[in-house]
From TrEMBL:
It comes from the Bacteria. Residues 119-180 form the GHMP kinase N-terminal domain. This is GHMP kinase N-terminal domain-containing protein. Residues 31-43 have a biased composition (Pro residues). InterPro entries: GHMP_kinase_N_dom, Ribosomal_Su5_D2-typ_SF, Ribsml_uS5_D2-typ_fold_subgr. SUPFAM superfamilies: Ribosomal protein S5 domain 2-like (SSF54211). Residues 1-53 are annotated as: Disordered. Keywords: Kinase, Transferase.
Length: 366
C-alpha cells in the first residue's frame, strides 16, 4: 500500500506576529501597537546563520498524530555560514526590499515577511530597505545555502527591530519564504525535522556523538534543484524502514555511539540512491569500509557527502588521511576534514589535508 505525503497546512496570510501553533514552544502573540511617536524607528541590524553538511537521515516518518510526513536530520558544521545586514529606509514600503546579491530572492522574501512580524510585535514602523548577504556557503550542493541566507536575513531584520525571534517563528518564516527549510534555526541540536512544514517531529537528544568527517563531492559537484525532486511515497515498507532508523538514531544519540550513528547514516544514504543514483556512491561506500570508517553520509538533495570516522578510536587521524588518499584514487574531490557533534564543532585544522576553513572558492571544482 502506498500513501502520498500530504501537503503541509500553511497559512501564508496569517496575521503577522501571531502563532496558530507553536512546535518549538510558546510563541508570543502580537504586541499591541503603542501610540504613534512613542517608539523609535528600526535601526540597522545584523544576523548570522550556519550551514550543514547534508543529512544523516532523511525519509518518511509518522508524526505524533500518525500522519506520514517527510523529515530529516542534518549533520551540523561550524563553517561556512551567512552574514546578513538589514538597513531599513524610512518611507520605503515594507514590501520593497533590495537584496545584494540580487539573485537571493528567497532571502528578500524572508526579510519582507520578517518586517511584517517584527513591526506587529514591537509597534515600530514597517519599513523596507536594503538586505546585504555575505558568506561562503556553496550554492546548490545540499549544504543549506538558501536556508542559511533566509535565516540570516530573518535574524538581521529582527535585530533591526530589537528582537530575537524564537525558533518556531523563524522556521515558519523560512518555510513561507522557500517552501522547504533546513533546521538551522535550532543550531546543532539533533532533531528530526519536517522540512516542508517547519516543525520538529522529535528532539533526539542534546548532541550528536562526536564524529570526524572527511568531506567530498559526488556527481561532479553539479547543483541540485531541491524542490524539483519528487516527494517520497510512503509505503508501509518505507514507514517501517525509516521508523527502524529513527529508533536506532535515537539510541545512538542517547549512548553517544558513533558506530551506530554511522550505520544509520549509511543505510539512509543507500536508500536515497533509488532517487539520487550517484555514480560514485558505491565506490564511496566501499572505500569507507576499507579505511575503517563507521559509515558514510550524503546530502539527499545535493552533491556533498562525507566519510564518517569515530575520533575516539585510536588511529583516527591516520584513517582520515587514508580516506583522503582513497578519495583521490577514485577521482572523488575531497573538500574538507572537520569534527562535529559532542560539545562543540570545529574545522579539523590538525590534519595536513586541511589548512584553512573551506569556502566556495577552495573546493577543487569551484
Amino acid at each position: 500500500m502506498t500513501t502520498s505525503i500530504p501537503a503541509p497546512d500553511t497559512a501564508p496570510d496569517a496575521v503577522p506576529g501571531t502563532a496558530p501553533d507553536a512546535p518549538f514552544g510558546t510563541v508570543p502573540d502580537a504586541v499591541p501597537a503603542p501610540p504613534p511617536g512613542t517608539v523609535p524607528a528600526p535601526a540597522p541590524g545584523t544576523g548570522h546563520a550556519p550551514s550543514h553538511h547534508g543529512e544523516l537521515l532523511q525519509g518518511v516518518f509518522l508524526d505524533a498524530a500518525g500522519r506520514p510526513c517527510a523529515g530529516l536530520v542534518t549533520l551540523p558544521v561550524a563553517e561556512p555560514g551567512t552574514r546578513a545586514g538589514f538597513t531599513p529606509r524610512a518611507g520605503v514600503p515594507p514590501e520593497t526590499v533590495e537584496v545584494v546579491p540580487a539573485d537571493r530572492v528567497k532571502a528578500a522574501r524572508a526579510a519582507r515577511l520578517a518586517v511584517a512580524v517584527c513591526a506587529a510585535r514591537t509597534g515600530r514602523p514597517a519599513y523596507g530597505g536594503v538586505l546585504r548577504l555575505s558568506g561562503g556557503v556553496p550554492l546548490g550542493l545540499g549544504m543549506g545555502s538558501s536556508t542559511s541566507d533566509v535565516l540570516a536575513a530573518v535574524r538581521a531584520v529582527a535585530d533591526a527591530y530589537g528582537l530575537r525571534l524564537d525558533a518556531g517563528t523563524a522556521a515558519r518564516l523560512a518555510v513561507r519564504a522557500e517552501r522547504a527549510s533546513d533546521p538551522l534555526m535550532l543550531d546543532a541540536r539533533p532533531v528530526l525535522f519536517a522540512q516542508r512544514e517547519g516543525r520538529v517531529l522529535e528532539v533526539l537528544g542534546t548532541a550528536l556523538p562526536r564524529l570526524l568527517v572527511v568531506g567530498c563531492l559526488l556527481g561532479g559537484g553539479a547543483p541540485v534543484d531541491t524542490l524539483a525532486l519528487p516527494l517520497p511515497e510512503a509505503t508501509g515498507a518505507d514507514l517501517r524502514f525509516y521508523a527502524g532508523l529513527r529508533d536506532r538514531l535515537r539510541r545512538a544519540v542517547a549512548g553517544q555511539d558513533a558506530a551506530l550513528l554511522g550505520r544509520v547514516a549509511t543505510a539512509s544514504a543507500r536508500r536515497a540512491q533509488r532517487v539520487l543514483r550517484q555514480p560514485e556512491f558505491a565506490a564511496l561506500d566501499a572505500l569507507a569500509r576499507r579505511t575503517g570508517a563507521v559509515g558514510v553520509q550524503v546530502s539527499h538533495s545535493g552533491a556533498v557527502a562525507g566519510v564518517l570516522h569515530d575520533p575516539a578510536v585510536p588511529g583516527a587521524a591516520a584513517r582520515a588521511e587514508a580516506t583522503r588518499r582513497a578519495l583521490a584514487a577514485q577521482g572523488i574531490p575531497h573538500t574538507r576534514t572537520f569534527t562535529t557533534g559532542g560539545t562543540n564543532s570545529r574545522p579539523a585544522r590538525d590534519f595536513r589535508t586541511m589548512r584553512h576553513a573551506w569556502t566556495a572558492t577552495d573546493c577543487s571544482l569551484h
